[in-house]
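INFO  loader      accepted 1 record
INFO  loader      residues=223
INFO  predictor   begin
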Amino acid sequence: KNIGIIPFDILHYVSFAALKNKDYYLIDKYNIFYLSSLSLAKFLLNQQGETSRNLNKPDLRILAIGNPDLGDFNYELPLSALEAQSIQFEFNKVDVLLKRQAKKSWVIKNIGKYNVIHIAAHGEFDSINPLFSALKLTKDDESDGDLRALEVFDLKLSADLVTLSACQSGLGKISVGDEIIGLNRAFFYAGTKSIVSSMWRIDDLTTSLLMKHFYRNYLNSNK
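INFO  predictor   done
INFO  writer      dumping tokens
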């Protein structure tokens, strides 16, 4: 029923969930999760769900970020704002940051307070130096707006779930020991129990609908 996949080498870039025979996709019959390395398994699997056991899911503290202002109309993601706002109808304690509110400096200072973190924004994968892969937030006098993997490693999180609803947010670079270096690895290291992230460029409307249903089911089902 549950399949855990710890890929090797080029298999890191295979979407196992999308594999199919003539009748069904793998994801249709099995719950699938990934680990970037075996060394993460004991740490993550032993602690998974710890936050949920301490609090009723409707009372989890939620941070929902949508459509940060990047200063360019061409980068607008209006439906990602609706995506972030829709989460507040499922939970009791939701802080929603949209447009100019989604400042990187505020996020770094406060992100550790939340049980679930949802970031619906542009993501940028740096294939030359994956530690500089970034989520694009709003810049201010204190920061340039790019929340880089390098900076995420320094955060202290206790989140049950982080959702990176951004293009290419799940991509990383294979290094020695088959570790994936990138945003996923950084959020795990910072203390996240589970991560939902995208592996390719995604449609704004489709993602918004998917996330709305995901959180509705997250309240009552195993993530």
